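Data deposition worksheet. Section B asks for the primary sequence of the deposited chain exactly as it was used as input, without tags or linkers unless they were present during the calculation. Section C holds the resulting structure in token form. Section D is free text for depositor observations; keep each observation to a single sentence. Incomplete worksheets are returned to the depositor.
Section A, Depositor: J.P.
Section B:
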Amino acid sequence: MATSAHAAVYKAAEYFNIKLVLIGTDEDGRMSVSELKKRMNKNVILVYASAPGYPHGVVDPITTIADVVKRWQCCLHVDACLGGFVLPFVKYAGLEDISYPPFDFSVPEVTSMSIDTHKYGCAQKGSSVLLYRTRELRKFQFTAVSSWSGGLYISPSQAGSRSGGLIAQTWAAMMYFGRRGYVSAAKNILKAAVSLRQDISAIKPLEIIGKDVTMIVAWRSTSSKVDIYVLNDLLSEMGWHLSVLHSPPAIHICITSVNVESLESLVKDVQVAVERIHAGDYNRKEGKAPIYGMANRMSNTSTVDDLLKDIQDVM
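Section C:
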């Protein structure tokens, strides 16, 4: 998987003792196919691609990755948790300037996909979808026990008991929005993304990361005089809660139907924050910038991992 793939894959690999092979990204933030070709071998069980990835909203080149996977005949998973209820509806939204290469089961080598109903499907947290190309693949997810003294047992996923209310709520949300609702939401979100990308690019020395227009808009600073983490601290003071990124240092906002009307105010506040940094109008010690900067620069990441676990334990 690419270094931009979701951190949940690290969690799964740690649980099941699967070795992760990390692939770098190209200049546009997509998985480097040339590096992927070099790292593939007969021990690879699955290649993980994103449509789009969480950090920068970039869609990996699924069709090109599929050509590499085809030779080795391993599985290809597409993480469409963010994009599953947005990208497929773009072609119905009349946004002629926005398009994406095929990323779903129309690509023969794609064997599974994950799509979060609890994100742009507008359902509650705790609901998600995992799709398989074939029933034969899906059966590997099931656990069947016929030798138990309690009788025959079958479980379809890691989670055993689950709320029927959550499933009903997810169904209700999808029926309420329907295809027309998801098309409308995709149109509003992506039109806003185009405008936000243009507006942020006009604020020097900020630079947009990635060429793909998706719901994620990420930007970095091209000047050492404007620390992106200090910028985030100042925006936090103004009431904004943005995501902090590493490698490269950056911040992003995930555009939704809820915050789409607030983006004009965000741009104004970003401009004000940049001007405050140039004027030295901030206290660097009071914010989180030193912590983020330290974590980004430390070569011994296990120390940061231990620190995060200690913080989690205290919480």
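Section D:
DSSP finds nine helices and ten strands in the chain.
The mean pLDDT is 94.
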